[in-house]
Request: fold
Amino acid sequence: MSSKSGASYSDFITGSPLVDTAAPDGPIETRWERRRFGVKLVNPANKRKMKIIVVGTGLAGGSAAATLAELGYQVSSFCYQDSPRRAHSIAAQGGINAAKNYRGDGDSIYRLFYDTVKGGDFRSRESNVHRLAEISVQIIDQCVAQGVPFAREYGGLLDTRSFGGAQVSRTFYARGQTGQQLLLGAYQALERQIDAGGVTMYPRHEMLELIVVDGRARGIVARDLVTGETRSHLADAVVLASGGYGNVFYLSTNAKGCNVTASWRAHRKGALFANPCYTQIHPTCIPVSGDHQSKLTLMSESLRNDGRVWVPQKAGDTRAPGDIPDAERDYFLERQYPAFGNLVPRDIASRAAKNVCDAGRGVGPTGLGVYLDFADAISRLGRPAVAAKYGNLFQMYQRITGEDPYEVPMRIFPAVHYTMGGLWVDYDLQSTVPGLFVVGEANFSDHGANRLGASALMQGLADGYFVLPNTIGDYLARGVEPVATDAPEVREAEAAVAGRVEKLLSIDGDRTVDSFHRELGHLMWDHCGMERTAEGLRKALDRIPELRREFWQTVKVPGSAATLNQSLEKAGRVADFLELGELMCLDALHREESCGGHFRAESQTEDGEAARDDERFSYVAAWEYTGAAPVLHKEDLNFDYVTPSQRSYK
Amino acid sequence: MRLNLRIWRQDNAEDKGRLVAYRVDDADEDMSFLELMDVLNEKLILDGEEPVAFDHDCREGICGACSMVINGEPHGPQKATTTCQLHLRHFRDGETITVEPFRAAAFPVVKDLVVDRTSFDRIIAGGGYISAPTGAAPEAHAAPVPKRNADRAFTAAACIGCGACVAACPNGSASLFLGAKITHLGELPQGQPERSDRVIRMVKTHDAEGFGGCTNTGECAVACPKEIPLDVISQLNRDYLSATTHRR
Reply:
């Protein structure tokens, strides 16, 4: 229940290394093919008898559930929203990468692989990333066949654009709503299987516990958010597709409901949590306007194709942007990174923006903002052309800020966006709990320490449509014994959920759940955000256990468990964030190098760029839950194809 | 700014429900309407009252979860705007605002402002897809799509499934939602093999779910936060007529 409420991991223990990742060796371009041939197959007659639970209905979960049902398995699909169509993948704006080389500009599977490994700052696995690049090509075919209305040229062929971190045009898009259209494709495939009887859908259900019997994942305990009923659901395998945990920062670009509970409950049952401190900070977000703010809104990175980023040369220049002549502006990305200019990767653009704001040159009422200016693009291309490309984004910006970006430059600032950490999985996407598979943002793989734009959608769909459906059979083919609904492990999991719910409702203190969440978020942003120091992280590690103790003593959760109770839902999620936050800080503290979006102030080059330390930190940090000091298991990363080097975008 | 709120409170589907008056004194014009609800709820919790239940999630106008009728209009007075993107700068200091759930026979109230919109999912399950099993797809460039068709498909596909069209319709019809999906898939070559079956099955599900018939009042398109054009309903009618008269 609240076993860890007062405890603190002041330190950690280094455990045995993780050696077996199940990845085949040999030539990289044949590894996936050989793995697929090597997996055991399940007889179609047996598939009908096998049950798989999928938690989450975003790109990864929706596509996985639909595909598994097509293969013949019995699938139960769970989401906390009222409909699977509302998963937060729907909010991704920019696009999806694929090595189609339709432009003939030199793209290839190998180049996408190379760019992704480099963009991840050499903290991802070569085998996984190569597979992702290979599958990217099939994803576009699949989505087009489903009717995803990608942008087209006048000749009827697919259009592409370029994105941060890439010099080729490989990003497919559907105006500024690519995530929505891809998600609707997966959702429609899912609804088709629901109609066909292959998938049983449980909307407004939240997974609150993982059931592990004889060391294997055998089901979940879920709460029906409308009736309050908690019930066990058993299966032969469990797939978590429950997304990322950026909401630990309170303010983020995530949907309000995004949470870590499914992953964290699995972590507490034995699944290792890898690289928790790897958070992507997105450079193009609308700045915070006040204390009431509940979330941050992203502006698609594709805007940096035509928008120029600048601040005044002089600190404290309060003139209106139009009154500042060109010579008194600093187009700092173009100046510092002439080769990539405004299209540098997200971590580089974010940090550069933070630096100019720290130097007092930020713009807007809070000074935490930089201009993203379309004046040049409008005079070069004309307003209609700019409107055709970015119209809906401009409209959204205007709605939120009350300013017209056709007339005045947008203001942007970095914000927490995507988490590259997550549950550790092997090449088959299986966690360290046999029978528990993790896909999409919920797992840690593929992105390394930094994610390139338009690669999240690619990974979600690759995992869900193509990887998991191939690898999960290997586990199931080896045979899974039936489990009794009244097995002691099932009863225990149910009792744990009931106890936790009862405890949260009984405290009846004087502080709201949101106030705890906000305080945790501030701590995380200040000390475990874009820039970290050992001193700051230690401060956070002191304060978080105290905050957790206060939470379990003074939180106020009104209402009852037997009805729709949104305060209770939030309370359970924030309780888990209060544990995760500490692990994130510990992970950040132990990694004494700058890497991707994780900038350790103590580790920088002479000109202020992030300094990686491959000698000491070229590994995945996978943490084991013990209830006390966590155990760190290291998985060494080997680079046979892309030699780690200082990333330079200059 | 100070705002007076009259909010619909209803414990569950069986409860009769009532409007309750609240006041928020410290609203800010930069707040979104949902942030106003957050501020109110924080106050209610500390006063020992149950907060107002409402659906919301992405808060960036795309998930379609937020659903409330503000001063008689689904998603409030601002054109082409979801509730989460509606900011208080569009209201006057001291104004009284009435907040109610989306009302329709096919959207039963769950609690307060939360309604059950799973009937929309069942309409999609009733044929709102292209049958394209994973792995069976031809090369994406095999079927070019004229830009005009791709653009129209996209415009229709932008529907977020919020249900404002239903809440605005005097008949509680979901024709705009249905027409949007029919138009999206019908504009694409991939959507042709199932075109007739799709429209017949989807209309059948729509009617069985308790949505009303369309009488062309056009309120749906006015309320639609994504500005889905009314002509998707004409498309729906054309497709339905054609499917029922020429179906082989």
Strands of chain B lie at 3-9, 18-24, 69-70, 73-74, 96-100, 109-111, 114-115.
